[in-house]
Amino acid sequence: MKLRNNKAAYLRGRGGFTMVELAICLGIIAFALVAIIGVLPIGINVQKDNREETIINQDGMYWMEAIRSGATGMNDLADHVTFIEIRNSNSQVYRWEPVPAGAGAGHMELPRGVKGAAIVGLLSMPVQADLVGPVTVRNWPQVDTGSGEYNLIRAKVRAISGSAVDKGEAAKEMAFSYRLTSEVRPIRTSGDWGDLTGRVWDNIGDKLELDANRFSKLNFYEIKLTFQWPEYKFGDEERPGPNKKVFRTVVAGRLVNRNLNLLNPVDTATGQFQEDVTSPFFFFEPNKFSVPRVARGQ
Predict the structure, then answer these.
(1) Which of 109, 126, 204, 288 has the fewest other C-beta atoms within 10 Å?
(2) 3-state SS of the chain: helix, strand, coil percent to 5?
């Protein structure tokens, strides 16, 4: 009997938690889990937003450098560009894609063998270029920035930088994509705005100034690239998301359009495709400058 009483006293000294204590512990744990679960989606969204903005920053510099340097050998761009769509002043829409265009297709195929150059060339088209057909530009080079012509040039792009997992063919539909809108404009000068003092431009000095204005508009351009992301698809319609970022720069040099037909021989002097004033593919040449006809006495 004595041993049994000692054992009972020992067990009473090592008693477990009561139901009240367990309920309090579970309440504390549940409160902490609710707080963590509530914060977790915010953290995931912040990480996603930071990743997407990092991709946009890297791709923005990549596109800007490709356009301002007139790059013609970047054929890997065809793996990232889904389409390029150009809407001119007459609301005519021309759509280019890197895939073949079958009978009844609503797009044109980018020139084979030079698809990278074609992508850069289309995105470098000035907004004032008089686009009268899918492959025809009229009255270029233009120096009249008040011509009324306007081309809306936009492209759907699958991220160039970012995770290697998104580069595979199987991940193409799910990879991060964005809308790229390109605007290339001649820099407006005092000749465009006129003289607010009412001065008449009739003497030799004024004519020289007007010639300088024409020279500036032929050789100084502003490039504006607008990125909107992510790109959503609703049935057959594609729309960009609410995020937006703009890149701007100024380029000094001539802007020429070239014929990208591989059957034509290249220019032996420059090693570039031949110039064609009716071609819709434009390229910057930062090391060369155009001279207006009036300055040459023509």
Answers:
(1) 204
(2) 35, 25, 40
Given a cut of 50, whether residue 1 has pLDDT beyond it is no
Residue 239, SS3 per DSSP: strand
Give the rounded distance of the alpha carbon of 232 from its chain centre: 16
Long-range contacts: 88-95, Cβ < 8 Å, 24+? 88/131, 88/149, 88/150, 88/151, 89/148, 89/149, 89/150, 89/151, 94/131, 94/134
Positive or negative CA dihedral for 176, 76, 222, 97?
negative
Q: Which of 3, 160, 4 is nearest to 80 (CA)?
A: 160
Per residue in 147-197, pLDDT tens?
Answer: 567 899 999 999 999 887 777 777 777 889 999 999 999 887 665 555 544
What is the dihedral angle through the alpha carbons of 164, 169, 175, 177, rounded to the nearest 10 degrees? Answer: 110
Virtual CA dihedral for 101, 171, 235, 228, nearest 10 degrees?
Answer: -90
d(CA 261, CA 243): 38
**pLDDT tens, 97-114?**
999 988 778 889 999 999
Predicted local confidence at residue 267, as pLDDT: 72
Task: Work out the angle at residue 25's Cα, subtended by the Cα atoms of residues 24 and 26, and round it to the nearest 5 degrees.
Answer: 90
Cα distance between residue 176 and residue 48, in whole Å: 11
How buried is 176 (Cβ within 10 angstroms: 0-12 exposed, 13-18 middle, 19+ buried)?
buried
Distance of CA 207 to the CA centre of its chain: 39
Domain spans of the chain, in order of start: 50-296
